[in-house]
C-alpha cells in the first residue's frame, strides 16, 4: 500500500492539497517567463544558473561580474532562512498559519513589482522574485505526502520518468497517479509561462498583476481554513517540515 493511501484525508491540511500546489506552480511559471521576457533575460525561480554564471565569471577573472551574482543568490538564501525561522513565531499567534501569511506577502511583492516604472532597474524585480520563490519553495513542500517543488520543473520531469519506468517494469498501474500529478505540475507551469509571455507582450511590467488572481484564490482558501475549517489545527505541522 502506498504511503499516500495510508494517511486519511483528514490528516492533510489545506496547505497540502494538490490544487494549492498546482496554482503555485502556475504562478512560478508566470514569474519565470516574466523575468526572462522583460526583466533582464534571466530565470529567478532557482539558483543553479546563477551558480554556473558565478563560476564562469570567476574562471574568466571577471571579479565584479562575479559579485553581481551574489545579490540574487543572497536574496534566495535569505528567503529560505526567513521561511524556516518565521513559522514558529507565527504559530504562537494562534491566528493564521505561516503558509497563509506567506501568500499575503507574495501578493504584496507582486503589487510592488507591478507598480514599478519600466525605467526601474531590472535587478529590483530579479531580487524580489528570487526572494519570494525561495520562500515559496521552502514553505510548500509536499502535496498529500508527495514531495513537490512549486518553483521549478527538473524534479517533476525526473519523477515522471521514474514512475513511468516502474509502471512498465512492474506492470503496475499504481505508479500512474503519481506520474500524473507531476505531469500536471509541469503542465500548469507551462500554462503560467505562456500566459505571462502573452501578457508581458501586451502590458510589459503591469502584466505581473495577473498573478494576483490565482494568489488571491489560494489566500482566501487558506485563510478560510485557518479561521474556520482548521481553526483547531493551527499548531499542526505540514508533512515534510
TrEMBL record:
It comes from the Bacteria. The chain crosses the membrane at residues 20-38, 66-86, 98-116, 183-204, 210-227. It holds the Pfam family DUF1275. Keywords: Membrane, Transmembrane, Transmembrane helix. The keyword Membrane applies. InterPro entries: DUF1275. This is DUF1275 domain-containing protein.
Amino acid at each position: 500500500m502506498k504511503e499516500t493511501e495510508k494517511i486519511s484525508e483528514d490528516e492533510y491540511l489545506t496547505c497540502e492539497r494538490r490544487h494549492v500546489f498546482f496554482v503555485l506552480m502556475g504562478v512560478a511559471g508566470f514569474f519565470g517567463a516574466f523575468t526572462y521576457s522583460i526583466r533582464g533575460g534571466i530565470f529567478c525561480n532557482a539558483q543553479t544558473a546563477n551558480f554556473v554564471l558565478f563560476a564562469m565569471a570567476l574562471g574568466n577573472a571577471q571579479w565584479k561580474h562575479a559579485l553581481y551574482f551574489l545579490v540574487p543568490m543572497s536574496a534566495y538564501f535569505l528567503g529560505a532562512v526567513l521561511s524556516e525561522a518565521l513559522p514558529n513565531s507565527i504559530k504562537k499567534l494562534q491566528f493564521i498559519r505561516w503558509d497563509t501569511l506567506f501568500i499575503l506577502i507574495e501578493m504584496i511583492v507582486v503589487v510592488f513589482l507591478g507598480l514599478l516604472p519600466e525605467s526601474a532597474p531590472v535587478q529590483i524585480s530579479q531580487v524580489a522574485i528570487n526572494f519570494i520563490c525561495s520562500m515559496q519553495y521552502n514553505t510548500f513542500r509536499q502535496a498529500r505526502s508527495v514531495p513537490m517543488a512549486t518553483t521549478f520543473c527538473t524534479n517533476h520531469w525526473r519523477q515522471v520518468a521514474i514512475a513511468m519506468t516502474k509502471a512498465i517494469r512492474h506492470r503496475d498501474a499504481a505508479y500512474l497517479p503519481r506520474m500524473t500529478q507531476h505531469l500536471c505540475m509541469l503542465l500548469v507551469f507551462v500554462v503560467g509561462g505562456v500566459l505571462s509571455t502573452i501578457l508581458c507582450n501586451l502590458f510589459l511590467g503591469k502584466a505581473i498583476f495577473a498573478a494576483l488572481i490565482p494568489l488571491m484564490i489560494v489566500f482566501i482558501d487558506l485563510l478560510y481554513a485557518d479561521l474556520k475549517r482548521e481553526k483547531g489545527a493551527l499548531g499542526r505541522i505540514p508533512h515534510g517540515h
